[in-house]
User: Fold these one by one.
Assistant:
Number 1:
Amino acid sequence: MALKVGDKVPDFTAKDSKGVAFDSSTVIGLKPTVIYFYPKDDTPGCTTQACSFRDQYQDFKELGAEVIGVSGDSVASHQKFAQKHQLPFILLSDHDKKLRNLFGVPTALFGLIPGRVTYVIDEKGIIRLVFDNLSGKIHIEKALQMLKKLV
């Protein structure tokens, strides 16, 4: 069952790009958070999306928010991706699809490609926006619009 607007995000753990266990309770429920699920590191659309989050990361920080990217890529892949594109935010490895299943992120194009969905979560851990769209650039704009409403 997919998480939707108004749902509280359950606690979860996953490895970040440094191989360290990330505990969601250290961020979610404490500050606004943007979690975006994307298909694959270093593909054109995903790189554009990640770099757009990077380029506007300061805007998210000024709104008190943290950004977290999630894909099924390995920790090593995330590490290379983050270094290559100087990504300042958290990347989580979801190689076992536990997070995709927890959030209910759909697959796209007849189940061939992992979906691209962004969640904006308020400081209490409640989902305020679910944006599902294959175009990566729009996600940043939608997330910032919602965060500005929350402040």
Note: The chain has five helices and nine strands.
Number 2:
Amino acid sequence: MLKGIDPLLNADVLYALRAMGHGDDLIISDTNFPADSLARETVLGEVLRIDRPAAEVVRAVLSVYPIDTFVDDAAARMEVVGEPDTILPVMEEVQAEVFAAGGPKLVGVERFAFYDRAKSAYAVIQTQERRFYGCFALRKGVVPPEEG
């Protein structure tokens, strides 16, 4: 255990989050997402796991991870097929965590476009979220220099 670090953030996840640079994407997926096969195409090359619901994982990640403020799609959700404007409860819960961390509104990304974004991401964290469409992309921002 470490002081000040959410215990959900295991060593492999912390390594990946620290290694990522500005503009790199992190995918947080539900348990049905093809995380292992798509993660093989990412920079990290392997799937990471945190066995908790999506919103809890997002909260833990955002406790140490800045969201990009230079692009409009820094926080995204996979759209419901055929219903791009539908916002499911899992999406509402994750949106609340993103807002609580000072992040933007989640933008919708069509399912196959989301898969493409996942393939070019730095890393994929698969959660134990069993609700459908519990898949999100968070683009890393910067940590500003200390004032003074």
Note: Residues 11-139 form a domain with the RbsD-like fold fold (CATH 3.40.1650.10).
